[in-house]
Write a structure and sequence with these properties.
Layout (H helix, E strand, L loop, with lengths): L4 E6 L1 H18 L5 E7 L3 H8 L6 E13 L2 E10 L9 E9 L3 H12 L4 E9 L12 E5 L22 E4 L1 H5 L1
Parallel strand pairs: 2-3, 2-5, 5-6, 6-7
Antiparallel strand pairs: 1-8, 3-4
Helix pairs in contact: 1-2
Bound molecules: inosinic acid and magnesium ion.
């Protein structure tokens, strides 16, 4: 797997430190409240596990799986729910936890959808954000790292379902995509 990597953008130590800072901010912002944190499968598994263990705010964890209809590699913003929440979000403070925000279209839809179900608030936390995300009107309250517009893997992110288990975030050598 080492031969497939080009560059490490975020080390495991950097991610751990940054998630600690984000958790402190989240604890301050939700002081006196209870949270429902919602992980978006499958990429957000690592962030959910690591961020949740740094939070002191009382919380419950739930999961959603969504798929975006799109042509080719670009998401269209039309979303299908593959696995819905087990919890009712009405009246609850929801924090959506994501691995990466690229176009932001999926999250924009998800935020509106959960607000539509009567959530008291719906905020977003993401480990990574790409520049495109700035173009969409989605308010991301907590961002780990802003990264360049490159395809990255690791820390939950995959290429063809591989590399999710890398503890850091990195880019791949061109030969990987040519196989
Ligand atoms: P969007 O923000 O609606 O475009 O969708 C973002 C989703 O696309 C993320 O949750 C990832 O699953 C996937 N994605 C976007 N950029 C990357 C990347 O660089 N590597 C791996 N997956 C990515
Ligand atoms: Mg994802």
């Amino acid at each position: 797997m080492g031969n497939d990597l080009k560059e490490i953008l975020v080390t495991a130590e950097d991610m751990d430190r940054r998630l600690g800072e984000m958790a402190e901010q989240i604890d301050r912002d939700y002081a006196g409240e209870e949270l429902l944190i919602v992980g978006v499968l499958r990429g957000a598994v690592m962030v959910m596990a690591d961020l949740s263990r740094k939070l002191h705010t009382p919380l419950e964890m739930d999961w959603m799986a969504v798929s975006s209809y799109g042509s080719g590699t670009k998401t269209s913003g039309v979303v299908r729910i593959l696995k819905d929440l087990d919890q009712d979000v009405a009246g609850r403070h929801v924090l959506i936890v994501e691995d990466i925000i690229d176009s932001g279209l999926t999250l924009s839809w998800l935020q509106a959808n959960l607000l539509g179900r009567g959530a008291a608030s719906v905020k977003i936390a993401t480990a990574l954000r790409k520049p495109e995300a700035a173009k969409v009107d989605v308010d991301v309250a907590y961002v780990g790292f802003d990264i360049p517009d490159e395809f990255v893997v690791g820390y939950g992110l995959d290429y063809a379902e591989k590399y999710r288990n890398l503890p850091f975030v990195g880019t791949l050598q061109p030969h990987v995509y040519n196989n």
